[in-house]
Amino acid sequence: MPSTHNEHDPPALSGRRTPAAPGPWSLDKLAALAGETETDIRGHADAGLLHRQPDGQFEPESLHRLRLIQFARSRGVSEDQLAASIASQSDLLGIFDELVPVGDGTVSLVDAARELGLDDAVINDLAEILDWNDVSAGTEADVATLQVLVKALALGMPRDALMQLIRVFADATDRLADAVVRTFHDYVHERFRAQGLTGPELLAASEGVGKPLLDLVEPTVVYFHRRAYQRARREDLLRHLAEPTTPPSTAPGEEQATVLFVDLASFTSLTATMGDHAAADVLRRFSVTVRSSAAQHRGRVLKQIGDEFMVIFARPFDAIAFGLAMDRFVDAEPQFPALHIGAHSGTVLYREGDYVGGTVNLAARVASAGVAGQFLITEELRDTAGPHPEVDFAALPPQRLKGIPGPVCLVEVRRRRIPSRSNRATDPVCGMLLHPSDVAAQTTWAGTTFMFCSEACQRAFVEEPERFATPRPS
């Protein structure tokens, strides 16, 4: 029979067996694998946290339960607290299954990695990125991943690039998994609690929804990854098509791009005045519009930090069009705060799923330099974008921006044929822009009439008019 070995396949691991599903544990073996004393393990059993069979052996799930006990202890939860929670809520340790089996600890990841040809520097990086709390006791899934990495290196993937990808995968999936678990807990489990369910009844109701939903998670993740991969490959097609007119980059990941930052000009004061839930609703409306407008204008939302978004564009003209779309959105949206928008075009460096460099730093400073409602760009961006049929560019006096050496020449982007904004009032407390129909209350102070989006904002103003009547930095 011909060999099926490929020259790029990693070497097979000699002498390493695939462990069968762990059977019952003896006290000494369970203690050795978990790094616990036999006395502590007996104490866990006496407290009802671990279960023994009639012959004294510990049940097969005991190693997994011990890992959960150790995790809870590392977060300050005592054995007594854990036992009390289990007594009142049913067996919590039994419902928190692991997608990756704990295994019997016979696989040494360090030995396996070295046998596969990975050096100590790579092993240390992997241990840190993948959170190997104990690199001497891994699972078959860990070893299978090591073999994938070795194959990627053999195929020609540079080591530093592979480590970048692993960090991106780890960070992205951490956030994804946390979102899955937290969203289920907040919107399903907590609603059952609000309905009055407690103890075993509460856990049974949550598990009745959670177990079937878990089966849907991984297929859904694969679906979204494939869609995203398709979009990313299409973008890569454009890079290939541009090669005849662009020289090779002098450093991996170096490219020309336009970076734009946009945020809500008064989000902090809005949250303080109207509360977290009202602010979250405003942020939701803002987020939906940023993402849809970015897609419409060939941009990509790189990241969101609070109410600030970083958007990247291949063409400067598209960044201008996006900023105008956001400006029109604010004009049309009832009770919505003004925006800060700032952008710059230049060389960026792509690293670990993010863009870094002076262009990014300057774009962020440009956004923060404007007053509420201003769309600012640099002269470089204006010159590379060229004229726009909807825009007048107004050059501003050079100004110094924090952390940027030398004065910077900024340009304000102003829409032509803009509808009159003279009928829009600004709530001095929360910063909302108000159409006449949005005004819920008004107050005259020191000869000036102030408009408010709600009676709550009016009351805050009446209590401290000097604080709100004076224009504050946006």
Distance between the termini: 75 Å
Estimated radius of gyration:
29 Å
H/E order of the elements?
HHHHHHHHHHEHHEEHEEEHEHEEEEEEHH
Beta-strand portion reads 15-25%
Largest β sheet strand count, sense and barrel closure: 8 strands, mixed
Per the principal axes of the C-alpha atoms, what is the gross shape?
A: flat
- What is the mean predicted local confidence, pLDDT? 88
Let me know the number of strands: 13
Label the structural class.
Answer: alpha+beta
Helix content: 40-55%
- Oligomerization category of the chains in this entry: single chain
Number of helices: 17
Low-confidence stretches: 1-8, 11-21
Summary of the model, kept short:
50% of the residues lie in helices and 15% in strands. With 474 residues, the protein is an alpha+beta fold.
Characterise this structure.
It is a single chain. The protein has about 475 residues and is α+β, with helices and mostly antiparallel strands. About 50% of the residues lie in helices and about 15% in strands. The chain has 17 helices and 13 strands. The strands form 3 sheets. Strands 1, 2, 3, 5, 6, 7, 8 and 9 form an 8-stranded mixed beta sheet that branches. A 3-stranded antiparallel beta sheet has the order 4-11-10, with no helix packed on it. The protein has a two-stranded antiparallel sheet with strand order 12-13. A hairpin with a 2-residue loop joins strand 2 and strand 3. Helix 9 runs antiparallel to helix 10. It is flat. The N terminus is likely disordered.
